[in-house]
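Aim 2 progress update. The chain analyzed this quarter is reproduced below.
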Amino acid sequence: MRTKKEYKPISCDYYDLLEIAAMRKTVADVKYRDDSGSTKSVSSRIDNLETRNKVEYLILEGGKELRLDDLISVNGKVLDGSC
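Predicted structure tokens:
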């Protein structure tokens, strides 16, 4: 997994929505930016949220990890700013 120089926290409200989805093990349509900056989509169950080295990750079923600042939208709700 790549390492960005600086992590940009997402909005607290958006984080709360992701946390609820993880608690409920919700299957979600997730759009995100990959390592090259291209937009990708995946439909998967949200298993957990984790923080490592001051970077927050969305953990999907099967172990796929997405940095929260790479997310574009989850179930059509667009990421909007930071805390």
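The domain at 12-78 is CATH 2.30.30 (SH3 type barrels.). The longest helix spans residues 12-23. These observations will guide the mutagenesis experiments scheduled for the next reporting period.
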